[in-house]
Amino acid sequence: MTARAQRRMLNEVKKNPRVSARDLKKSLAHANISVDESTIRKTLNKNGVHGRTPRRKPLLSRKNIAARLKFAKEHLDVPQHYWQNILWTD
């Protein structure tokens, strides 16, 4: 793989980090660059771009939904200045 092809591939990954090796292979094929998917993965790994899958967020359970609703109802009439001392960590 040429240095020019590597730069092109890295630029595409920077634009869209979720692009797959198969899609990169197709986009490089449009530029008349024939590269295997494993070569693409190896090249990206050498350049510090590693494939990761996003962590799955757990769904809210009925118990958690009830606890949230209870909290909201309990604090419905709390004055505005009460919330200014709360540290929110969303």
UniProtKB/TrEMBL annotation:
One of its GO terms (molecular function) is DNA binding. InterPro entries: RNaseH_sf (IPR036397), Transposase_Tc1-like (IPR002492). It comes from the Eukaryota. Residues 6-77 form the Transposase Tc1-like domain. One of its GO terms (biological process) is DNA integration. Gene3D superfamilies: Ribonuclease H-like superfamily/Ribonuclease H. This is Transposase Tc1-like domain-containing protein.
